[in-house]
Amino acid sequence: MKRLTFFTYGLLVVFILVGCAKQPSEDMSAAQKAVEDLKATGAKKYIPGDTKKVDDSLAAAMNEIKAQDDKFALTRNYDKAKQMLAQVRADSEKVKADIAVKKEEAKKNALAGQEAAVASVKEARALLARAPKGKGARADVEAMKVDIKGLEDSVPELQQLIDKEDYAMAMDKANAIKEKADGVSNQIKEAMKKVKGK
Q1: pLDDT in tens, 123-166
Q2: Which of 125, 142, 150, 190 is the most buried (most CB within 10 A)?
Q3: 147 vs 180: CA distance, rounded Å
Q4: Measured between alpha carbons, how far is 138 from 129 in angstroms, rounded to an integer?
Q5: Which element (helix H / strand E) includes 148?
């Protein structure tokens, strides 16, 4: 009888030790570090969608761990959470590898935007030299000179943004400069058409 009792207690202890699954703390730390390392590379700037997916996957894994923590000790199972955390690490590495390509692409786009903006400002300056200078046009020409001067003064900021690797901001600013310069050019062209028409 004593043997049976010891055997039962022994089985119960083994069952409790096996059944009480522990939180995968090492896996959690590794996944969190992988995501932090990913963010440190500037991934949010260059691959925001993929970075958000990795973030969301980490949050889902942490929720799974919390769900298991809330269960009765003998029914906890962290296998799914471990798989999710491993996937987070793998996805983080993949996105990290993609960043270099995306960063180079963003730089090329920013440089092309800068080039287009500079060309538009030069075209507006050249057209301004040929703008009609009649009686009623003098004030308009002066206003356009001020606009073009402001655009020319803002062009160096594009290079500063590119040097700081803030390619998205450089692209936005280049597009704004180009749009305004094109607007001035169109105004001048319209004025020239009116003069020719007369």
Answers
A1: 999 988 887 776 666 777 888 889 999 999 999 999 999 999 89
A2: 125
A3: 8
A4: 12
A5: helix 138-163
